[in-house]
Amino acid sequence: MTVLILTGEEDVTADMVVVHLNASGVPVIRLDPADLTASAALSGEFVHGAFRGHLSSGGRLVSMSGLRSVWVRRPGTPAARAPQPSAWLTEESAQSLYGLLRGCGARWMNDPDAAGRARHKPWQLRHAQHSGLPVPATLITTFPRAARAFAERFPDLVVKPVSGAHPQEPPRAVPTSRVAPGTDFDAVAYGPTLLQRRIAKRADVRLTVVGDTLLAARKATPADADPDHVDVRFAPSGTPWEPVEVPPRLAEAVRSYVTGAELAYGAFDFAEDADGTWWFLECNQSGQFGFVEVETGQPISLTIAQWLGRPGPREPDHADGRRVPVP
Amino acid sequence: MTVLILTGEEDVTADMVVVHLNASGVPVIRLDPADLTASAALSGEFVHGAFRGHLSSGGRLVSMSGLRSVWVRRPGTPAARAPQPSAWLTEESAQSLYGLLRGCGARWMNDPDAAGRARHKPWQLRHAQHSGLPVPATLITTFPRAARAFAERFPDLVVKPVSGAHPQEPPRAVPTSRVAPGTDFDAVAYGPTLLQRRIAKRADVRLTVVGDTLLAARKATPADADPDHVDVRFAPSGTPWEPVEVPPRLAEAVRSYVTGAELAYGAFDFAEDADGTWWFLECNQSGQFGFVEVETGQPISLTIAQWLGRPGPREPDHADGRRVPVP
């Protein structure tokens, strides 16, 4: 039973996981959808009520019924490196590859449809509320008067993009920024704007969930930190990421979140306030984890390898095309 | 409780449904995502564990908690008609609109994530097999030798696109065509190819599913029809669409399909062979129904209006971000 990893050739984070899979003798096949139809190939046959599928990549051929899990890491655009790339070929290749894999019965990290839904930040905020996670007061709006009223109730605000990243090649993250007092909100009418109560934080928390394993890391905010440096990704880094225990009630809420979201992997970002409350900022279903593992020594890549490589039964309901909550 | 219809201004099929909703006094709001952020606006607030959302379109303002259902008809590209359109604005607007609506608790026709999965033809074929529908022998492949072997086993084949439609503006359908004997399959290596055993058909069947209502129409193939005219959409039309009873076993399989696919609406295409067997060709989750209603007089738009307008409880699990099979 093989693990399929959908990612590009240069992906050191995937390499970290592959090392563990190799060490435990689990067969791995790596396929970049961009290599369809050059060095990667696919085939699926539906005859007499049965299905037989095959994938080939880097000279190796595997049966789809022999896939125990699929890790959607950093797949390229399907057929992007084909001899004659086109939007049509990309669409045909995407539908073929993901359509065949959706029906093959392997466990997904993450299921593509669940992942698509989980990327929506408004849905994340609502789902976090329902899961019992503390969510900072947030407004997403194109109404200037709604923005003004919100800023009166919550004068200390940050602004951030709704979708998270600029749709560019390579994608560029937009930092979260403080909203200056007396800001004119007229321009809100020209594009949805996400305003959120700023958490006066004493630490950033990254909680990585793999199956039912929770691994949290904490990065203390230096006492002399500039309060305008809201976004940990762009702030000067004086303190390290360190492992931290997950409070039991929060762990329960996080498990409720990933079960409801049907995710096998999620990278949660929290802001810890002066009372020690962890405020939900987002859950990135494809979030990076290499930097946390390197700084904390937490066995994230090993845990992912164990989840992917676990023999266990394939999902019967998945084979049936039905979704089931990820165990 | 209002029905939200996501579609463009000119959509006579939507108009047919709106007539019925108006007649029964159900409030309707029509919104084209392309009108964000010009004549359409949105707002959603997450405060103290609760959510309040609003939409405005054509000068009307509705609360999202007052939406009983959302009909995803023919929505435009978000923010396409904004004063300064951009890929970034489209992404922000799409995430905002569909993210807020995903968490608002209304019933969907169709749920966007279920719809995304249901568009994959390979997944459709596998799901149809599992649901007990007869599926013609089909191969999707980039291996020329697999295509050759398949053509030896099934000499009478048709070829059609995997993704269904050319990714163009306006989208252009590619007709299903017969494969000539002795075809050279070398070019299969350059793009996924869908080959399917040709059903020598005596009729085309269009089965429209709305909730738990099944409405089937049949178009007899004229005795003197050219067997090269495989695709009913492009064949000369000598015979009309006429209502037809759905065989009970097939009805059961179709219900299993839509329940498993979590669809509230689906347009199934079948080919009826000389034995009367209905062979599954595809299920289009956004398929047109106007032409069938006009020719057969079947109350499809009325049934859709009834589904959308039904007071019934909102989906508790949907509000929770969880999917539930469509009743």
UniProtKB/TrEMBL annotation, chains A, B:
Residues 2-111 form the MvdD-like pre-ATP grasp domain. SUPFAM superfamilies: Glutathione synthetase ATP-binding domain-like (SSF56059). It comes from the Bacteria. It holds the Pfam family ATPgraspMvdD. Residues 308-327 are annotated as: Disordered. Residues 312-327 have a biased composition (Basic and acidic residues). NCBIfam families: GRASP_SAV_5884 (TIGR04187). PANTHER family: BETA-CITRYLGLUTAMATE SYNTHASE B-RELATED, RIBOSOMAL PROTEIN S6 MODIFICATION PROTEIN. This is ATP-grasp ribosomal peptide maturase.
